[in-house]
């Protein structure tokens, strides 16, 4: 199991290399400085509608905040029976796997020896108790905005509400050079970690402030939904305008009417966050399904409404020039019965041949039993319509292909939503054929036909690597070249010195 | 040849449409030498298809049968029985002669005494209801059964409000624990 959105996210470790030389000096300083001067707890920025309301204790509130922060999604073990927060879950990255550590309060294997200041520094600044830098697979750039009161509640929960697990994960994080040098992250943090606590905007309602706080800190929505710059840091200018993450596409969730979710009501947004499903609009898959399963569905209705209310106030942006909302594509023409039920050969050889690449035939056999022969889904919307569906109407077919390949399993408060994975049932050409049939029939016909090679890349989770990763061999050889030049120059300099001395 | 009603009085018959198209494309037809011959045989096929559609709507009592499936049913029945065209045309003539106005009256009419005619009528009706023609063999690789349609078979229609065509989902898993809403009208 891979948590795919970190695939790309984790490659942020790469950017540090470019920054390392200028930033290294200040890095060491800021790190020791932090260790000797732990942050002072200041009680401010406490939002009026804090979730203290309704919680009987700080511990209970901390447990809720840990849910909202989706800590368990990464800090779980590899097996379903692993105790909570035991760690060991491998987050795949192009440089190697980043293994989540044990964050149970074990004094030997977990964070049991962390003081509240050290705990706060790990969450908000991405620095471990021993001073080592965390990779931004840990969304500390988002958690940096957490207020002190919430950090305190989280600390109380992790120290008192979680059972200690005295066993470290067996796997360890091993990244390729130069990404294995954790200190490199200091340079990146210097540029991209804005570690200022969240500030209320006095011009908007308490509810919107509360939603803003949740969206930007604990729920860390922008981690996936904001595109990243050259150094793999989130672009604040293109906040929540959509980005590719580990094969999936986290779409534009600004309130733009065509490209974003402007056509959604606040109630629909809140319902989506709770269930992962809004009839005739979208269903959560991939990382979003996980976010709902592990985190969002446990949030209070008031908090979900607050998040929805805030999302409606974000600056609407249409960067791709989309002209039709991804929720609005549809085909009303029913298909002809004779076409969808062709007379096929009934010889044994023909019937055992499973190599067809006829998109319609494959759709009828693999998809129509649930999604309907006209893509209408079932009347109760449990099996969603493929018309009016963000997976078929988007500007890219990433989520459609990924869903066919990997299926869906989303635990919600209303039960489990599921679709089988077809990666073992259908080959790349067949999945491409189905995707093309679905797109041309129910979805966005403007999407260029999907090739078998594209499906193969999605299957291998070979998303287009970040520019920085592509450039890494050049940067490394460039650094090597500079190093060799320095050696040669040094050699001649020393030789010259000797020469001069001898001639003297 | 007996007169028989046109499929639809309002729209042009396929035959007329064909003639029009053939007339317009006369140039290419001449170029293609054999085209007049082709047109002749196509007209015959279409006429038989029209006849079969007529007898199908009469015998099943469904006026909304699918034209494409009708042609396919005719092909399947002909494949299962080479004399089928003659047989159903004889039956059609008999229905006209006996002025049978409703399929339920067939059995009590003189046609009901004619085993051959009744067998033909049953072949047509069962093809529409079962979705295949001929006899499927259970334990053999080869048989003379011919596929017409799966989900278009008429047998699914009467309970469509409450049951599914096997293999198609009607709703979320376990949807069936709740009785269908339409049961009150049954």
TrEMBL record, chain A:
Its main location: membrane. Heme c 3 binds at residues 367, 370-371. Keywords: Cell membrane, Electron transport, Heme, Iron, Membrane, Metal-binding, Repeat, Respiratory chain, Signal, Transmembrane, Transmembrane helix, Transport. Its cofactor is heme c. Heme c 2 binds at residues 221, 224-225. One of its GO terms (molecular function) is oxidoreductase activity, acting on CH-OH group of donors. The chain crosses the membrane at residues 471-492. It is found in: Cell membrane. Gene3D superfamilies: Cytochrome c-like domain. This is Mono/diheme cytochrome c family protein. It comes from Zymomonas mobilis.
UniProtKB/TrEMBL annotation, chain B:
InterPro entries: FAD-SLDH_ssu, TAT_signal. Pfam families: FAD-SLDH. It comes from the Bacteria. This is D-sorbitol dehydrogenase-like protein. It comes from Zymomonas mobilis.
């Amino acid at each position: 199991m891979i948590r795919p959105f970190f695939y790309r996210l984790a490659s942020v470790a790469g950017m540090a290399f470019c920054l390392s030389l200028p930033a290294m000096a200040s890095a060491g300083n800021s790190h020791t400085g932090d260790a000797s001067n732990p942050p002072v707890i200041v009680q401010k920025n406490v939002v009026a509608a804090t979730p203290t309301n309704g919680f009987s204790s700080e511990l209970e509130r901390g447990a809720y905040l840990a849910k909202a922060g989706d800590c368990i999604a990464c800090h779980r073990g590899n097996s379903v029976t692993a105790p909570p927060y035991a760690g060991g879950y491998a987050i795949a990255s192009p440089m190697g796997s980043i293994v989540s550590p044990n964050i149970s309060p074990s004094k030997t294997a977990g964070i049991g020896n962390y003081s509240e200041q050290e705990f706060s520094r790990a969450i908000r600044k991405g620095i471990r108790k021993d001073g080592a830098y965390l990779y931004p697979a840990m969304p500390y750039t988002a958690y940096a905005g957490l207020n002190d009161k919430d950090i305190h509640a989280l600390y109380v929960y992790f120290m008192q509400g979680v059972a200690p697990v005295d066993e470290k994960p067996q796997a360890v994080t091993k990244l390729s050079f130069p990404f294995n040098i954790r200190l490199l992250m200091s340079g990146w943090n210097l540029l991209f970690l804005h570690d200022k606590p969240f500030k209320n905007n006095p011009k908007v309602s308490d509810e919107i402030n509360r939603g803003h706080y949740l969206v930007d800190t604990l729920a860390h929505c922008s981690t996936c939904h904001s595109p990243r710059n050259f150094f793999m840091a989130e672009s604040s200018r293109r906040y929540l305008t959509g980005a590719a993450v580990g094969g999936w596409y986290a779409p534009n969730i600004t309130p733009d009417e065509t490209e974003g979710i402007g056509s959604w009501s606040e109630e629909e947004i809140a319902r989506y966050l709770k269930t992962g499903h809004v009839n005739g609009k979208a269903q959560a898959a991939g990382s979003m399904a996980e976010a709902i399963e592990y985190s969002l569905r446990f949030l209070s209705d008031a908090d979900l409404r607050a998040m929805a209310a805030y999302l409606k106030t974000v600056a609407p942006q249409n960067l791709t020039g989309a002209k039709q909302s991804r929720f609005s594509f549809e085909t009303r023409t029913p298909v002809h019965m004779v076409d969808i039920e062709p007379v096929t050969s009934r010889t044994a050889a023909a019937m055992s041949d499973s190599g067809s690449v006829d998109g319609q035939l494959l759709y009828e056999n693999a998809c129509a039993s649930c999604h309907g022969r006209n893509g209408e889904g079932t009347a109760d919307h449990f099996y969603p319509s493929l018309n009016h569906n963000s997976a078929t109407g988007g500007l890219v077919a990433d989520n459609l292909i990924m869903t066919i390949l990997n299926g869906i399993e989303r635990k919600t408060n209303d039960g489990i939503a599921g679709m089988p994975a077809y990666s073992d049932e259908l080959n790349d050409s067949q999945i491409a054929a189905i995707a093309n049939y679905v797109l041309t029939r129910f979805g966005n016909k403007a999407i260029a036909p999907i090739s078998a090679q594209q499906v193969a890349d999605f299957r291998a989770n070979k998303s287009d690597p970040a520019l920085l990763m592509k450039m890494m061999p050049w940067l490394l050889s460039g650094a090597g070249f500079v190093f060799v030049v320095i050696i040669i120059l040094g050699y001649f300099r020393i030789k010259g010195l000797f020469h001069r001395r001898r001639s003297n | 040849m007996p007169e028989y009603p046109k499929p639809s009085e309002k729209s042009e018959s396929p035959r007329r449409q064909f003639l029009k198209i053939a007339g317009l494309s006369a140039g290419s037809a001449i170029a293609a030498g054999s085209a007049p011959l082709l047109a002749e045989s196509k007209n015959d096929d279409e006429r038989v298809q029209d006849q079969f559609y007529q007898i199908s709507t009469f015998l099943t009592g469904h006026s909304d049968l699918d034209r494409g499936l009708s042609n396919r049913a005719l092909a399947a029945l002909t494949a299962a029985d080479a004399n089928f065209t003659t047989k159903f045309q004889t039956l059609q003539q008999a229905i006209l002669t006996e002025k049978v106005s409703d399929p339920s009256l067939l059995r009590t009419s003189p046609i009901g005494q004619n085993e051959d005619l009744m067998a033909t009528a049953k072949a047509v009706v069962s093809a529409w209801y079962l979705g295949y023609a001929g006899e499927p063999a259970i334990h053999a690789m080869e048989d003379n059964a011919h596929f017409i349609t799966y989900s278009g078979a008429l047998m699914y229609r009467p309970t469509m409000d409450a049951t599914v065509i096997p293999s198609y989902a009607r709703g979320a898993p376990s949807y069936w624990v709740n009785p269908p809403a339409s049961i009150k009208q049954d």
